[in-house]
Fold this protein.
Amino acid sequence: MKDLLTALTAGYWSDREISVNLIVFANLFGALLLGLLVGYERSYHGRAAGMRTYGLVCMASCALTVIVGYPGSWYGGELQGSVLAHLVPDPTRVIQGIVTGVGFLGAGVIMKEGMNISGLTTAASIWSSSAIGILVGIGFYTAAILLACLSAALMMWAAILEKTLPSRPAIAVTLAFDTGFVPSQPVLQKFALERGYEVAGGTLHIQCIAKREEWRFVAISLRRNKSLSLSEMSNEFRRFEGVSEFSLAHARN
């Protein structure tokens, strides 16, 4: 029995199999480190997906890709001489499956609340993390390191760059009017323009329940430094005729 067990497991502990496993281990460890590097920025900013998520995605993507490169070592080399040993694995199909699967994972962190959409950056960076693992798995180590550094740098410093460039911030506005009050869209648009905002076309949503209207829309700043802040807009809406309740928030996506 002992001799039979030794014979069955000998293939898994041959010099070739050990060297292949060491190569795979080095790839997985490198992919894990790069995934943790990208995930640290999300973890630092308190996002739902942190270092563990990115490390797992990157490492698993690498594992699925790297094993395709060693079909001769599958199952301890037992496929040698069989029909399956002559089949050439297609890494592109594995990569396609990884990208599709990680896409569903990324969709889980995208949330929509009213007119605000959050989680797009996290979803995109998770997808990027899978690409890093794939690059490590197929042996493009320099490209994987570069992609990891660029992804982390983009998430850390792109927001600072955005603040220095000309832009038009937007706010999501919800107005609840007094019962029976009929609001006027031209009056609302003039009110917004006088305070440095314009109502974005196609964003106005009107709801009426029990003769009480509620308007929701996105207001875009005409100029960043010329528009009122969120707190200043709050004070202005307190004096807007017919408004009983309102809600203001930065429109994120």
Summary: The mean pLDDT is 82. The first helix runs from residue 2 to 9. Residues 2-164 form one domain.
